[in-house]
Design a protein that fits this description.
Helix content is 16%, strand content 18%. The protein is of the alpha+beta class and 200 residues long. The protein has 2 domains: 3-88, no CATH class; 96-149, DNA Binding (I), subunit A, CATH 1.10.30.50. The strands form 3 sheets. A 5-stranded mixed beta sheet has the order 2-1-7-3-4. The chain has a two-stranded antiparallel ribbon with strand order 5-6. The chain is elongated and about 70 Å long.
């Protein structure tokens, strides 16, 4: 594995109370550990290590690691801050997952819950007419209602949106970018923390 690649891997950052607050690069995680501002966490045992004791753990060949002249240092996947104990407040990003959560997997025209595979994201003002992908312009619609509405506004299609679309009131703790999630984080995260940006 190339050092530059390993240093850019994501690491989950926990505050002093073990609450996930953000992600960072392995490079920054090492810097925090060297300064004594963070300790590496072994996800399986929850044991923590300062930088020196972390370098004493031999990295296996298949594990992500950083090579130095004398050492093969394991890439920390989770770090625990030693001083910081706040939880930064974040805005809810507009995403498919969060839109389904906001609309409770329900068609906002007929009110049915046909299942996620039968639900689509409908633009109140169609994209073909300049409508944007925003909290206030998008709702869930079943396939049947989406086809009935077509490229029209609900008013033009004589359809009623059941609830006024808007940004959710709940606040996530941090954002995980698409493709960044690591299996070793699953015991530290719940769905309440996931805030994955929509990729169109």
């Amino acid at each position: 594995m190339q050092t530059t690649t390993a240093l850019e891997y994501p690491a989950l950052v926990l505050n002093r109370s073990w609450v996930p607050i953000r992600t960072t690069s392995v490079r920054d995680a090492f810097c925090l550990m060297i300064r004594g501002a963070a300790r590496a966490v072994e996800p399986e045992t929850y044991r923590t290590y300062d930088f020196d004791s972390w370098t004493e753990i031999l990295a296996k060949e298949h594990e992500p690691h950083v090579r130095t002249v004398r050492l093969r240092i394991r890439v920390p996947e989770v770090i625990l801050l030693t001083m910081y104990n706040k939880v930064p407040e974040r805005e809810v990003v507009f995403s498919r997952r969060n839109l389904f959560k906001r609309d409770k997997n329900r068609c906002q025209f007929c009110g049915k819950r046909p299942g996620t595979s039968e639900l689509t994201i409908d633009h109140i003002v169609p994209r073909s007419r300049g409508g944007k992908s925003t909290w206030t312009n998008c709702v869930l619609a079943c396939v049947e209602c989406n086809a009935r509405k077509g490229g029209r506004t609900p008013h033009e299609a004589r359809m009623v949106v059941r609830s006024q679309p808007g940004k959710p009131a709940w606040k996530p703790h941090f954002t995980i970018r698409v493709g960044e999630f690591r299996q070793s984080w699953k015991d530290f995260l719940s769905e309440a923390y996931w805030n994955v940006e929509l990729q169109e």
